[in-house]
Automatic annotation (TrEMBL):
The keyword NAD applies. Signal peptide: none annotated. GO terms for molecular function: carboxy-lyase activity. This is NAD-dependent epimerase/dehydratase. It comes from the Eukaryota. Keywords: NAD. It comes from Dillenia turbinata.
Length: 383
């Protein structure tokens, strides 16, 4: 499979260590690597269900992917796997907002302390590291602190988030929702320092709400009954069950949403263009797909009615407080709009898929995958 980088140089096959590669992002990246490249992939994770189709003997690329069931918290085997690879992509994280309040210690350990050995091993062995951070690193926007009647409230420059300019504005310590963003900021700073002082070749990725098939889980089907996934899976679960979609604090927070397939194109460009990606922090999102969470819910109702054949008038929303939904200590950012200048200049990447199109693909998958299981669950008598 002959491939060239953005500068016309031939891309040599490499060995990629993918930590957390059995999850949502990792499964799509594995599919991309198996389908379009000659690279070998070593997946480290505690679960493999989302990549099992790639591990089957009948899969044409099965000889280029291997899975190691390893928990990096307590298994030293992953050091050898990192040091034997050409590049490590670290996706491992606790990244569901419902956990930030209820499991702040686990959140900090997962996103900061557990990542330290990964950074250390890459530095010691002189190997590249692509580390996944988060758009939550930016916290609240400057614009959100302006008085409601201030004329600059409408100026977009106070809301646009730039990798090398925007400050990180978090809420008070008692708002434990920010434990995730703080942990991610600390590991970013460690990676940057290792690059400056010890020559670590790194790229930091800040995803802005990547969504698509296989994201998170559906409670009671392939996840815990009391689990609370991120917004797409939460709303999908409500739709599948015919329940109202719950709008936290009225769903007024604004978000941009990026299709996972578009985002994976950007990640592959980072992997195969080290001269353009090393030392860079990249926003990866779709600023054209900005909506409030309430508007997202309304659009999901419309699209789900189309793919499922259900009557849209039977699908509704309801408002809940953040305290009731997430617990004490919840806080949130107002808007998350990525500036795309750096990734466009360095890698020539721009997202392509509209919000309605990506929801059409995603909700068709959700309905096809889960509707029968949900019906079976709902038909069982309550204990």
């Amino acid at each position: 499979m002959g491939r060239s980088d953005l500068d016309g140089n031939q891309i040599k096959p490499m060995k990629i260590c993918l930590i957390g590669g059995g999850g949502f992002i990792g499964s799509h990246l594995c599919e991309k690597l198996m389908a379009e490249t000659s690279h070998k992939v070593v997946v480290i994770d505690v679960f493999s269900d989302k990549i099992d189709h790639l591990l089957q003997k009948s899969c044409p690329s099965v000889d280029r992917i291997e899975f190691h069931k390893i928990n990096i918290k307590n298994d030293s085997r992953f050091e050898t796997l990192i040091k034997s690879a050409d590049i490590t992509v670290n996706l491992a994280a606790i990244c569901t907002p419902a956990d930030y309040n209820t499991r702040p210690l686990d959140t900090i350990y997962s996103n900061f302390l557990d990542a330290i050995p990964v950074v250390k091993y890459c530095t010691e062995s002189g190997k590249r590291l692509i580390h996944f951070s988060t758009c939550e690193i930016y916290g609240k926007t400057i614009g959100s602190f302006l008085p409601n009647d201030h004329p600059l409230r409408k100026d977009p420059k106070f809301y646009l988030l730039k990798e090398d300019v925007s400050p990180c504005i978090f809420g008070p310590v008692e708002k434990q929702r920010w434990s995730y963003a703080c942990a991610k900021q600390m590991i970013e700073r460690l990676i940057f320092a290792e690059g400056a002082e010890h020559g670590l070749k790194f790229t930091i990725v800040r995803p802005f709400n990547w969504i698509g098939p296989r994201m998170d889980f559906i409670p009671g089907v392939d996840g815990p009954n009391d689990g609370v996934p991120r917004v797409l899976a939460c709303f999908s679960n409500n739709l599948l069950r015919g329940e109202p979609l719950k709008l936290v604090d009225g769903g007024q927070s604004q978000r941009t949403f990026c299709y996972i397939k578009d985002a994976i194109e950007a990640v592959l460009l980072m992997i195969e263009n080290p001269s353009r990606a090393n030392g860079q922090i990249f926003n990866v999102g779709n600023p054209n797909n900005e909506v409030t969470v309430k508007e997202l819910a309304e659009l999901m109702i419309k699209v789900y009615a189309k793919v499922s054949g259900d009557d849209a008038s039977n699908l509704t929303t309801m408002e809940v407080s953040s305290k009731d939904f997430y617990g004490v200590g919840y806080d949130d950012s107002d808007k998350r709009i990525p500036d795309m200048t750096i990734i466009t200049q360095q890698l020539g990447w721009n997202p392509k898929t509209s919000l309605e199109d990506l929801l059409d693909t995603t909700l068709e998958y959700q309905h096809r995958t889960y509707s029968q299981a949900i019906k079976k669950t709902l038909s069982q008598p309550a204990c």
